[in-house]
Structures are given as structure tokens and as C-alpha cells.
UniProtKB/TrEMBL annotation:
This is Cyclin N-terminal domain-containing protein. The keyword Cell division applies. It comes from the Eukaryota. Residues 139-237 form the Cyclin C-terminal domain.
Length: 242
């Protein structure tokens, strides 16, 4: 079964995802957790470049990494690259992006240490167990359409909604790697903040302010967390572009 970032549970309305998203938090605080995360992301990005993997695959793989670290049941493996490769392999099998991934041909310059099929099998079992066998993930992408249709469409009616959605999606891909400070926020708050950033870049202040008010007073939104997340995200993406 293919997994869609935008529609992780096709039989559930988006309103139910707001109630479920706490089960997919990725917050982390200890310096060791961030150091481990950076090492794993570096390995994943090396493989993405060498194998030309789709960014949706690597996004899901990094989400698995974040969930593993958040769960505090990090796999006990002989080399950390086994975790990165396992997350990439699972994401490749499960995501709706084209292409597949195998460890065959990976080399040391990718940061991969091949300890054999038994070690890979044990790593796979441990990763699946730490994720509670749940390879679906509720990510910020699952909430974009909700905020667009419920709150953005009335504000910019007549404009192509795919344009701010594309920009918000680009921000989400970027912020997953560059914005460690985003990990403390719920996926829905991150999604709303990415759309606020996109609208702030693309539309006049009155439309941005109207959209901001609509999102802030959504029944599902914590407006204090939204403000903090938006400010942090805006600073991160524009500091990186300077």
C-alpha cells in the first residue's frame, strides 16, 4: 500500500488527524538527540544525491528518524548507518514517490558500513518496533489542503491556490533539514506556519492579515504556538536565503 504525505489515512477526515497528530510528534531536547539526528540526516542526504532519490522519499525517511529519536527507543545497532539505510528502505517501499531503493552498490563514501544481511534484518525489526509498526506518518503535508480550502480560499478567491501550496511545500521540505527549532511544534502548526510564510511572500498585507486571523482562530489551532512557529520559520527560511 502506497503512503501519501498529503493523505496518510484516506478513510479519516482531516478533523480526525488533528486529534491523532500528537502520536506523531518529533520533539527532542537533549544535545545527543540533535547530534544523532544531524548524523543520520547527513547519511540520508548523501544517499539521496548518489541515488537521485525523490525528496518525498527522503522526507519520509527523515520523519521516521525523528519519530525514532522522539520515541526514546532508538535501535541498538552496530553502526548508525544501518538506521539511516533502514529508514530510507522503508520510506522507499512505502511512499508514493516513483522509484525504489536497495543497499546494493552503496559505498563507504556514502557513509554506509555494510555489516551483512543479518545486521540489516535486525535493524529493520528494531526500527519497525520503535515505530510501533506504524509506517504511516501524520506530517505537516496532511494539513495543507485543510488550511487552504477552509481559510485561504475565501481570502484569495480567484487566484491559483496551487501556487501558495507549492511554495509552502517547498518550505516544508527545506525546514525539515534546516529548522531543528521546528521539531517542538505539532505538524498542523508547522503546516499553517508554512502557508503563512508563503502568503506573506506572495500577497499584499491585507490578505496576509486576513488569512492570519482566520488561521489563528481556527478551532484546531493554538494561536500562541502558531505565532512562535511562524516567527521562527520566517527567520529560518530568510536567513538561509541571505
Amino acid at each position: 500500500m502506497e503512503f501519501s504525505l498529503e493523505d496518510p489515512y484516506p478513510d479519516f477526515p482531516t478533523e480526525d488527524l488533528f486529534a491523532m497528530e500528537n502520536n506523531y510528534r518529533t520533539s527532542m531536547w537533549a544535545p545527543l538527540s540533535f547530534a544523532r539526528r544531524r548524523s543520520l540526516i547527513l547519511l540520508i542526504l548523501r544517499v539521496r544525491r548518489s541515488r537521485n532519490l525523490h525528496r518525498r522519499t527522503t522526507y519520509l525517511a527523515i520523519n521516521y528518524v525523528d519519530r525514532l529519536i522522539h520515541s526514546r527507543h532508538f535501535p541498538e545497532v552496530d553502526h548508525i548507518s544501518l538506521v539511516a539505510i533502514t529508514c530510507l528502505s522503508l520510506a522507499s517501499q512505502y511512499s508514493d514517490s516513483a522509484g525504489s531503493f536497495t543497499v546494493r552498490g552503496l559505498e563507504e563514501e556514502d557513509g554506509f558500513v555494510d555489516l551483512g544481511p543479518d545486521a540489516r534484518y535486525r535493524a529493520d525489526l528494531q526500527v519497525r518496533a520503535a515505530l510501533n509498526g506504524e509506517l504511516n506518518s501524520i506530517t505537516p503535508f496532511a494539513f495543507l489542503d485543510f488550511f487552504i480550502l477552509e481559510h485561504l480560499f475565501p481570502v484569495i478567491n480567484g487566484h491559483n491556490l496551487e501556487i501558495p501550496k507549492f511554495r509552502a511545500s517547498t518550505i516544508l521540505f527545506h525546514i525539515q533539514i534546516a529548522g531543528e527549532n521546528m521539531l517542538r511544534y505539532k505538524p498542523s502548526v508547522i503546516a499553517a506556519s508554512a502557508l503563512l510564510c508563503a502568503v506573506n511572500e506572495m500577497f499584499p498585507p491585507p490578505q496576509f492579515e486576513e488569512f492570519t486571523l482566520a488561521v489563528r482562530f481556527s478551532e484546531f489551532m493554538d494561536e500562541d504556538m502558531l505565532e512562535l512557529c511562524f516567527v521562527a520559520m520566517w527567520e529560518t527560511i530568510h536567513d538561509d536565503e541571505e
